[in-house]
Amino acid sequence: MQRAFTAFHHFLYRAHFMGIPHNPALDYRPEIDGLRALAVIPVILYHAGLPLFSGGFVGVDIFFVISGYLITSIILAQMLNGRFSLIDFYERRARRILPALFVMMLVCLPVAWLTLDPSDLKYFAKSLVAVPTFSSNLLFWLESGYFDATAELKPLLHTWTLAVEEQYYLFFPPLLILAWSMGRKWLIVLLIAAALASLALAELGARHNASNAFYLLPARAWELLTGSFIAFYFVWRPRSVDSASHLDQAATLLGILLIGYAVVCFDSSTAFPGLNALLPVLGAALIIVFANGQTWVGNALSSRVTVLIGMISYSAYLWHQPVFAFARQRSLIEPGLPLMLALTLLSLLLAWLSWRFVEQPFRKAGAFNRRQLFASAGVASTLFVVLGLVGYLNNGFSQRFAVDPAMH
């Protein structure tokens, strides 16, 4: 352990006093977009009800690892160069997350009004309050389990993952800055301790209170921290991009196998997200660490199709659940496989439109300045919260379905 402290401290000393070498971890990696595709497709097909993807919900765990890796890589590079700013960080998160999310919610409003009965609309109204305040994981934790039969009827159920991520990024950067200033050689030790405690909570919760473990940040933080550890590792030891060793090939193949096993063999009866979540998390970590364009897995994940799906994966994740939920709400029986596959294609089309005309324009810093961005986000959030409160207090507007006495 002492040797590990010494090595890490030496690295930090070199980084601080000698300047930071170019970090390939910050370069664009098409295989990461491919890994996003490998995460979102199982999630969508799981929610579509395809039996082969009974464990497709593990795609969320892959997303957590990717997010932890990418965001921490950016934070570390800026901190080591003395340029990190919390306000800049939250601006980038807002540009990335909010526009596509708010557009999806806006489209859901008239559809919900036209299709949901009062009790379901009242519940939807509560979701409208929870989503922009990034507390939807708390709402769904209090209301139902992820694997409950009624869960697939909730148009905004999937936003619990955004709440977990944003709660993590509300606390992680300030705590990282604090730990950094207190003594950098202890930073990794503290993060490892936090990850182990989180994993222990996840395992305990998965065995005794699955809803707590599934929805809440304390049981999910270790997955995001796994990605963060990879970012630390790459700053210490930059990744190879020009060659692929036998270890690289074997590790990435093992990563695919771990993810594939979880997707196919896990189901709603699997204790999750405790130790079982190690399979998709470690699978994603192995691919991030060892994959490059020279590995078989990296090459496959870098194909044009997988990269395109990965690029639209956030919007695909946003759109598939409301599309599926509203279709199920209007169907007397569970929609058949052909319809669900058609709805999957519709979700991908909506995702591309969202990526092209919402995500891309807003991610350009020149499109809206910081003040405009935060002001618009504040106004939109307030409107959704007000609409949600009005819908809830009016019991889902039950008068919409009142029968005119003259009809009798």
From TrEMBL:
GO terms for biological process: lipopolysaccharide biosynthetic process. InterPro entries: Acyl_transf_3_dom, Acyltransferase_3. It holds the Pfam family Acyl_transf_3. Keywords: Acyltransferase, Membrane, Transferase, Transmembrane, Transmembrane helix. Coiled coil: none annotated. The chain crosses the membrane at residues 52-76, 97-116, 186-206, 213-235, 247-266, 278-297, 303-320, 332-353, 373-393. Residues 30-355 form the Acyltransferase domain. GO terms for cellular component: membrane. GO terms for molecular function: acyltransferase activity, transferring groups other than amino-acyl groups. This is Acyltransferase protein. It comes from Pseudomonas savastanoi pv. glycinea.
